[in-house]
Write a structure and sequence with these properties.
Elements: H1 8-14, H2 16-27, E1 48-53, H3 55-72, E2 76-80, H4 81-87, E3 95-101, H5 107-116, E4 122-127, H6 133-137, E5 140-143, H7 156-175, H8 181-202, H9 205-215, E6 220-225, H10 230-244, E7 247-252, E8 269-273, H11 280-292, E9 296-302, H12 303-309, E10 315-319, H13 327-330, H14 332-346
Parallel strand pairs: 1-2, 1-3, 3-4, 4-5, 6-7, 6-8, 8-9, 9-10
The structure holds 5-amino-5-deoxy-1-O-phosphono-D-mannitol (M6R).
Residues 54-57, 101-103, 106, 109, 152-154, 238, 242, 359-360 line the site of 5-amino-5-deoxy-1-O-phosphono-D-mannitol (M6R).
Length: 363
């Protein structure tokens, strides 16, 4: 049942405020305490975290790396499961091994989990399907409560994965003395406001549809972002490739002049994801380098960022203001809707893109 939407993907994008609220209510008490099942994780006994996943779940891990390192000061290594499993990396004893998977059945992620079993201090999974193999075989499993995701393109699972991951980060930071009670309470209250902020972002649907209409004529598209917006750029490029079949690549903005800027001309739209944060000026200066080469920029930022930097850009998409830590969850919305509307404009099979399966149970 598509609930009145044209595609499951559209329905699942629209469900995000509700399911993120659900995920929060499962883990956060009324008093603002984060409760993990089965005794949770003792983050004071962990020296490092290894995160392993595939596809969109891998990008959720990349975001979590920024969060864990900046907020909880725990070193994190992230790898795609198909590389990790055959590299057979050494796993020091005080490692928390964390696996993220919507289906909980992805063959490479499951193999990586089995490799870590008995080596890592603890194996933890963040999954959507509680009865899945990855959930059953990990020491502790945290459901994301996104509900069934039908569209091959992962949308609500991604934002719910990020929601559960940020709760883990806050829990870790608090346990390790990197964050006091007051700061934790601030973050929890910001998280509680997130569903309504996402609703505001979803109201920009028409602007995103118009930008997507322009994108649909492109052969190649570049996505740029810095810091925790870099994984979002990767996610935007993957979504676009997956369902619209347009070649899209993402770069960390600072990498632009190390190669990809050679691709830029008036035929290559460049999507810049840049909330008005500490890295904004750096990203904008990369964006200006693109515009100086006639690149057509779609700038996604908040009102303040757009007021400062939208001169001369091709299109703008305005996101509401959100607490800095939460920008990756919010900016998933334009990543998803740009891809969705581009695919619709091209008439591709949005929910069932060619050559792809919802659950990749063979390697
Ligand atoms: O079920 P999983 O989360 O383990 O699946 C991982 C990837 O196959 C998945 O995220 C894939 O990249 C999506 N189709 C992306 O939209």
């Amino acid at each position: 049942d598509k609930g009145g939407h044209k595609h499951f993907m559209a329905k699942e994008i629209a469900e995000q405020p509700g399911v993120i609220g659900q995920a929060l209510s499962h883990y956060v008490t009324d008093a603002g305490e984060i409760i993990l099942p089965d005794g949770g994780v003792d983050f004071t006994k962990i020296d490092r975290i290894t995160m392993v996943a595939c596809g969109t779940a891998f990008y959720a891990c990349l975001v979590a790396k920024y969060w864990f390192e900046q907020v909880a000061r725990i070193p994190v290594e992230v790898d795609v499961a198909s590389e990790f499993r055959y590299r057979e990396p050494p796993i020091p004893a005080n490692t928390l091994a964390l696996f993220v998977s919507q289906s909980g059945e992805t063959a490479d992620t499951l193999a990586a989990l089995r490799y870590c079993d008995g080596k890592a201090q603890r194996t933890l999974s963040v999954i959507n399907v509680p009865e899945s193999s990855i959930a059953r075989e990990s020491d502790l499993s945290l459901p994301i409560y996104a509900g069934v995701e039908v569209g091959v393109a992962s949308t609500k699972a991604f934002t719910c994965q990020l929601t559960v991951l940020i709760l883990l980060v806050l829990k870790a930071a608090h346990a390790r003395g990197e964050m006091d009670d007051a700061k934790l309470a601030d973050h929890i209250s910001a998280l509680r406001g997130l569903p309504s902020i996402i609703n505001t972002a979803l109201e920009q649907n028409e602007t995103m549809r118009e930008a997507a209409f322009k994108l649909s004529a492109a052969r190649d598209v570049l996505f740029l972002g810095r810091g925790k917006m870099y994984p979002l750029a990767l996610e935007g490029a993957l979504k676009l490739k997956e369902i619209s079949y347009i070649h899209a690549e993402a770069y960390a903005s600072g990498e632009l002049k190390h190669g990809p800027i050679a691709l830029v001309d008036e035929d290559v739209p460049v999507i810049v994801m840049a909330p008005r944060d500490a890295l904004f000026d750096k990203t904008v200066s990369n964006m200006q380098e693109v515009m100086a080469r006639n690149g057509k920029v779609i700038l996604i930022s908040d009102a303040e960022g757009l007021a400062e930097a939208s001169n001369g850009v091709w299109s703008t998409i305005e996101m509401p203001k959100v607490a800095d830590l939460l920008t990756p969850i919010l900016y998933a919305i334009p990543a998803q809707l740009l891809a969705y509307h581009t695919a619709v404009a091209k008439g591709t099979d949005v929910d069932q893109p060619r050559n792809l399966a919802k659950s990749v149970t063979v390697e």
